[in-house]
């Protein structure tokens, strides 16, 4: 059975996270040709990337971050 959901922007992340946790639900984004996919949406479109990204966000919220100096001349 297929459904189309229209979700307000402020609720989208909550609803998507809920649906990702329901193992019997398959999420297939529907994109119009004119719609541009942002970087986060692209990363979340792959289940392995989504898990890594969500874990990284959780680590950052716990204060577990590593700072890198990308401009160091070593």
UniProtKB/TrEMBL annotation:
It comes from the Bacteria. It comes from Hymenobacter ruricola. Gene3D superfamilies: 6.10.250.330. This is Antitoxin.
């Amino acid at each position: 059975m297929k459904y189309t959901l229209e979700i307000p922007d402020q609720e989208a992340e909550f609803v998507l996270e809920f649906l990702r946790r329901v193992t019997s639900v398959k999420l297939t984004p529907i994109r119009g040709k004119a719609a541009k996919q942002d970087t986060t949406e692209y990363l979340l479109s792959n289940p392995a990337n989504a898990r890594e990204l969500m874990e990284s966000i959780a680590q950052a919220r716990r204060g577990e971050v590593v700072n890198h100096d990308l401009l160091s001349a070593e």
